[in-house]
Amino acid sequence: MLSLLRHMVEIESPSDDKAAVDRMGAFLGQVFERLGGKVTFYPQQEVGNHLKAEFHGGASDRASDKTAGKPTLLLGHFDTVWQMGTLARMPFRIQDGRAFGPGVYDMKAGITMMIFALRALKAAGVAHRPVTILLDTDEEVGSTTGRPVVEATARECEAVLVLEPSQGPQGHLKTSRKGVGDITIRVRGRASHSGVDFEKGRSAIVELARQLLEIVKFTDVGRGLTVNPGVIQGGTRSNVIAAEAWAEVDLRIARAADASWLEQKFAALKPFDPDCTIELTGGINRPPMERTEGTVRLFGIAREIATGMGMPLEESSTGGGSDGNFTSALGVPTLDGLGAVGEGAHAANESVVVENLFWRTALLAGLIQTL
Ligand SMILES: [Zn+2]
């Protein structure tokens, strides 16, 4: 497992480098074919080609009814947030029981686990539902092109197991995730010389500042709804009244119904200064993954399997989104956070606990066998 993981980490695959991501996809396609999978690529212009691999349900002589049933979907992505060349300063290494490297936790370890769970089931001759693996290539940048492929695939599946990183040092599974969005608010005012023509100017910066004070009032932490202006920019020089200013605002919602509520609040914003204009782009791009009955049932099965191995297993909710948000919103039972136990997704200390890779892979195999 570690040598496969190392190999995948060393094929760097940042979302914005199509050639690099396609190298990773080509490698995975070969691995899946060797495992007996039927591989399909979904060609893309800007981002890497998405990848699907379909596996039948195991040994025919021991086939049960399930082997002809709807597949279990193993979901993930093979793009990372790390720029090409990161490997030079953050090489794959194993230290103090942890494996480090760009994308190791989010989520090349999860893909390694998928491959080894299938290998184990095959070696043991266990019959199970068909398995579909779907890996997209723009998850880290919002799944714009991945989303329709993920949704079309999930619709045909019985359940979705997401191999994204688990939660916290105990490796909790994720049974709910917040919905995610972003809105850019752009204000246009009127430029003028701050000394000579002060009164002719209309400051886009002042107008934007006033708008942001309205926007942050939408936050309701108790309801799981937060609004964060995370980037702000505007103006040209201190002696010029700013003609333009804009801010990027991150949105998180715990409940699906809050998407339209929040978008309406934004749409209702009016300029304080009638000589300024406001333009909004964006919105909610991932619906929340709510803790549905189907998800709770999947978690119950996972916990039982873990208990059988003498391992405790808990569930958590998170403010971060994944492609599991899409499948869950379609009503397909979805269990997330089945990937590696570790820390530092998107951070320099990104790493996975090596010892936990093995029982978590057994847990995944057990789930595929049981569902
Ligand atoms: Zn991820």
SSE diagram, text form:
Elements: H1 2-10, H2 18-34, E1 38-42, E2 50-55, E3 72-77, H3 86-89, E4 93-95, E5 98-100, H4 104-124, E6 131-136, H5 146-155, E7 159-162, E8 173-177, E9 179-188, E10 192-193, H6 204-215, E11 226-234, E12 240-241, E13 244-253, H7 258-267, E14 277-286, H8 293-308, E15 315-318, H9 324-329, E16 334-335, E17 342-343, E18 351-353, H10 354-370
Parallel strand pairs: 3-6, 3-7, 7-16, 8-15
Antiparallel strand pairs: 1-2, 2-6, 4-5, 5-18, 9-13, 9-14, 10-12, 11-13, 17-18
Helix pairs in contact: 1-4, 4-10, 8-10
The site of zinc ion has 6 residues, from α4.
Structure description:
By secondary structure, the chain is of the alpha+beta class. It has helices spanning 2-10, 18-34, 86-89, 104-124, 146-155, 204-215, 258-267, 293-308, 324-329, 354-370; strands spanning 38-42, 50-55, 72-77, 93-95, 98-100, 131-136, 159-162, 173-177, 179-188, 192-193, 226-234, 240-241, 244-253, 277-286, 315-318, 334-335, 342-343, 351-353. The strands form five sheets. A six-stranded mixed sheet has the order 1-2-6-3-7-16, with helices on both faces. The chain has a four-stranded antiparallel sheet with strand order 4-5-18-17. The chain starts with a helix and ends with a helix. The model has no long low-confidence stretch (mean pLDDT 95). The structure holds zinc ion. Zinc ion binds at residues 77, 106-107, 139, 164, 322. Zinc ion binds next to helix 4.
